[in-house]
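job 3f2a | input accepted
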Amino acid sequence: MAIDVKSLTQIISDFRKLQSKDSVSPESLGAILQRIADLLATAGTSDTVTAIQTLLNGFKAAGQAVCSIEQGAADRNNILANIKAVDLGNGSITTASNNLFIKQATTERAGAMRAQQVVDLNNARNRIAEILPLLEKIQAKLGMTDGTKGLYNTAQISVAVVNGTLRIYGAQQLIADGYVPYLFRHTRKRNQWGDKLVIEAGGATKKYCDKRKGWNLYGSVHSVKISGSTLSFSTNPKTEQTTVAIGYSTSPDALVTVHTRRDGTPSIGWGRSTISLLDPKNPKKHRMIRLRFAVGLAKKMLPGRSLITTANLASSLAEFSIIYNPTSQKWTFGK
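job 3f2a | predicted structure (335 res):
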């Protein structure tokens, strides 16, 4: 730090006021010199002065320091702020209004939220809280539990081939709740139209329903039955699958009907198509054929009133196949 010149000048002035009659004794001169030495001791070294000067230069280079920030105006896209700052070089204070801005938060970037966004967020949270109890009830109906992590429990069914017959697993609770099995085939088809209520009411009629491709109902509620865990199928002719079955069979032959074309080719009907059992490259040999079926459970609906689709099911679809062996020329169940 700098030497206190005022104090040093005062010491010199006091020394000059001494009268000649007082004479300068070694004691008085020593006292004055000691005061000067003490004053010089309070002054910093050149290293201290250099360090202080470096610090001051750093303050000047930094420019300004922020004293306070408060929210200013806001528009549709930005939130502005008022800033009070001090100049580190000369100590002056400046205020900048609506200078700094923060962009609004969007789905693609972070930012500040407007009041309406907070309101919307709170509304969404409240609505989710209202939905959660309903969702828990739906999960309970579907057999979903915490341990299944979103998978069906009582509604998840499967089939397996055991000793040449089909066994169904996981359907016991659904059957106890009054659900019945339905049989589906993966086909392209267009059913004949026959809405009995519309016909009786004298409404407009048509010959066929709309074309569909995918999992289509085969027959009706009468086409498949569950006995214990064994699946059996109606032995009615294909054209009478919508009527009460005269009997049931666990054999895959109940699901296919082989007929012979005019040219002598054995074939089967599959939706809107027919499939030849002979190899197209060698008509003298039979070929292997795999047909996709599936079973699912839903509420009992009698045939002839409404279309039953996989959307009506209360369970998953349990898929299986029937396979034609060209060597033995027999049908077997498979997966």
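job 3f2a | DSSP finds six helices and 18 strands in the chain.
job 3f2a | closed
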